[in-house]
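hey so i finaly got around to running the thing on DUF3016 domain-containing protein from Shewanella sairae. pasting the sequence first so u can double check i didnt mess up the copy paste, my clipboard has been acting weird all day
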Amino acid sequence: MKYLSTLSIICIAMMLNGCAKQQGSLPAETIITEDGQVFIAWNNPADYTDVEATLGVQSKYQQYLFSELTEELGKVANKHLSPNQKLELVVTNVDLAGDVQPTFGATPHDIRILEDIYPPKITFDYTLSENNTVLKTGSEKLRDIGYLSGIQPIGNDPFPYEVDLLTDWFKETIKPVLSE
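ok and heres what it spat out for the 3d tokens, dont ask me to read them lol
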């Protein structure tokens, strides 16, 4: 009887605690990455369309993805940005190329299948500034529906299609402003 009443109290406390947490809104998570003069805020990645890990822990995969994309954009951007210039992106959605499919026991992990119907997409706001003066600002919804057309990249880049989206955007949108 003593055990049953203790168990009942614990259950009631857990239910009340759960109700209290559901009523309050949790703050959105933001992950910040940077490379030289490039700063990227990845807002609420839990709501992104597809950044699903096929292997390993999801949070570590996300951090790896965000770091790799920042580093690759930084490689291109930092060649053109002067020390007093800064490029800031606030990413609101990522949909990686392909779709994660289960292997139904054939392998211990799911696999990412690349098909034309699953193009890479990235949505973000950006600001290019120099000495705290805004040179260019805007919002972008990038996608490459022809990402499987043409010559495919060969190499060990884990996110070649997403890197291409960002670097092509930089060359077409930001680089001309820097040349003025």
